[in-house]
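#struct-pred
JK: can someone run the complex with S-adenosylmethionine? inputs below
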Amino acid sequence: MAFGVYVHWPFCAAKCPYCDFNSHVRAAIDEDGWADGIVSELQWTADNQTTRPVVETIFFGGGTPSLMSGKSVGRVLQKIAALWPMGNDVEITLEANPASADAARFADYRAAGVNRVSLGVQALNDTDLKKLGRLHDVAEAKAALAMGIANFERVSLDLIYARPDQTDAEWRSELKQALAFGTDHLSLYQLTIEPETPYALLHRNGQLKIPDEDLAAGLYETTQEMTEAAGLPAYEISNHARRGQESRHNLIYWRYGDYAGVGPGAHGRLHLNGQRSATAAIKLPERWRDRVAKTGHGFAELTAVSNDEAAREHLLMNLRLSEGLDLGAYEKRWGMGLDAAKIDALVEQGFLTQKDDRLTATPNGRLLLNRVIEALL
Ligand SMILES: C[S@@+](CC[C@H](N)C(=O)[O-])C[C@H]1O[C@@H](n2cnc3c(N)ncnc32)[C@H](O)[C@@H]1O
Ligand code: SF4
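RT: done, structure tokens with the ligand placed:
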């Protein structure tokens, strides 16, 4: 089974008002101390596995991992290589914020082994970047992109759409520019108003006019059409790639493979002591570090995943993908199949399509995936 390692770097230079990722702003960061914690958690994870799976992907996410030094990234990568056998062609991604993209550091990441960078561009006009609380402008984002392309084999960029006051024409022109950059992967996220963020407060007070449901659905359709025409169709709800350039790390999540998650707030799904397990680390960095220092890991949640729960998660993950679910493989893996009558009803209602043994969610079904899963199980 495919195995990946996720490393969470929980710090950002500033908190964006829409974001509820586990990201924190600190005046000073004892980088070596945080890297020590990550190295300990990797060691604990490997010590508690009964097998040594081959690492196929590594992903530095955040937060803003592009605030890490090349030395820390290299140290973490060396530890992973010392603990597990590495695949021939390991995909090593690092998420970068254009505001902290630095040519010398990019070269250090590359020397350390990073071969893919995912850049948080978010918007391609300066007014909107300001509204999003970003610390960079479009020119800096483009410079970071050029630096990414110069240093890494593979580059992806993130954009957020359905932003306050955004029209379909504006999004079309922005997406056209993004497609013209020529990267083989784009993550295009519809803005979500996350509870307890400054955006949620503004939205509640009527100070943030986001596209209504119809416009948002139209923007989603525009996104599908334009990316498909450019040869980067959606392979997941928000992710688009040229064939073969999909994020192999994220495919491990969505195909329900095994992955270790280390660092504050990271999640993992992997076999520990012979059992499929869920891990979730303490979110607050300082509490996480204290716990790691005492016990070797900072997992607040460390539980066995039952067969039923795993089957449910597998379904939920697989139906996010345009390739969908292989019904035969699913039945074989979990010892139970899906109810044909329930599938037929959801096909009839336009939420699913079935072709031979492949079950896929329609665009409508993908938007209401949790409800589809409830109806299916
Ligand atoms: C961890 S960040 C990427 C790296 C870096 N922290 C940055 O922002 O440049 C992950 C991505 O999630 C997306 N994101 C975060 N909050 C979002 C929200 N509320 N709605 C839609 N997309 C969001 C952004 O596109 C962001 O680039
Ligand atoms: S969007 Fe990125 S930079 Fe902004 S707070 Fe979230 S993780 Fe940090």
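RT: quick notes.
The chain has a mean pLDDT of 96.
The first strand starts at residue 3 and ends at 9.
JK: thanks, will look after standup
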